[in-house]
Amino acid sequence: MTIHDYLAFVKQRNAHEPEFLQAVDEVIQSVIPVLDRHAEYRKLRLFERMTEPERLISFRVNWMDDQGQVQVNRGYRVQMNSAIGPYKGGLRFHPSVTQSVLKFLAFEQVFKNALTGVPMGGGKGGSDFDPKGKSENEVMRFCHAFMGELARHIDHRTDVPAGDIGVGGREIGYLFGAYKKIKNEFTGVLTGKGIGWGGSLIRTEATGYGLIYFAENMMQHAGSSLKGKVCLVSGSGNVSQYAIEKIIHLGGKAVTASDSNGFIYDESGITAEKLEFLKDLKNNRRGRIKEYADKFKGSVYKDIDAKSDHNPLWALKADCAFPCATQNEVNEKDCKNLVKNGVKLLAEGANMPTTPEGINVLIDNGVMYAPGKASNAGGVATSGLEMTQNYMGNNWTREQVDEKLHGIMKSIHEISLAAAKEYGKPGNYMVGANIAGFVKVAKAMQAQGVI
Ligand code: NDP
Ligand code: 2IT
Question: Which residues sit with their C-beta closer than 6 Å to ligand 2?
Answer without folding.
Answer: 88-90, 109, 112, 162, 164, 191, 351, 379-380, 383
